[in-house]
């Protein structure tokens, strides 16, 4: 039996899911803090997302934080503050 393929969603849907704004979602994508897929053939990137990838990414980051391993953005902030 074939598994049902997960549909891509827009930045607006991800913002709604995360309780944030579309602009913040796009900033997180550019910073490498959220997994996204660019649509090609356009001058500016149009990003699409899979909710399962977003939730998996967030869960993995929580595990890293709990284990004492700082995330890259946390380490960058520490360096910037020094």
Distance between the termini: 55 Å
Strand arrangement across the biggest beta sheet: 1-2
Largest sheet: 2 strands, antiparallel
Bulk shape: globular
Topology order in helix (H) and strand (E) letters: HHEEHH
Mean pLDDT: 80
Estimate what percentage of residues fall within beta strands.
5-15%
How many helices? The count is 4
Could you list the spans in which at least 5 consecutive residues all have pLDDT below 50?
71-82
For the secondary structure, the number of strands is 2
- Helix/strand-derived category reads mainly alpha
Helical coverage, percent range: 40-55%
The total domain count is 1
- Using only C-alpha atoms, the radius of gyration works out to 15 Å
Topology:
Blueprint: H1 11-18, H2 22-30, E1 37-39, E2 46-48, H3 51-66, H4 72-81
Antiparallel strand pairs: 1-2
Structural features, described:
The structure is a single chain. With 82 residues, the protein is mainly alpha-helical. It has one domain (11-81). The protein contains 4 helices and 2 strands; from the N terminus they run H-H-E-E-H-H. It has helices spanning 11-18, 22-30, 51-66, 72-81, and strands at residues 37-39, 46-48. A two-stranded antiparallel sheet has the order 1-2. Helix 1 crosses helix 2. The relative contact order is 0.14. The model is unreliable at 71-82 (pLDDT under 50).
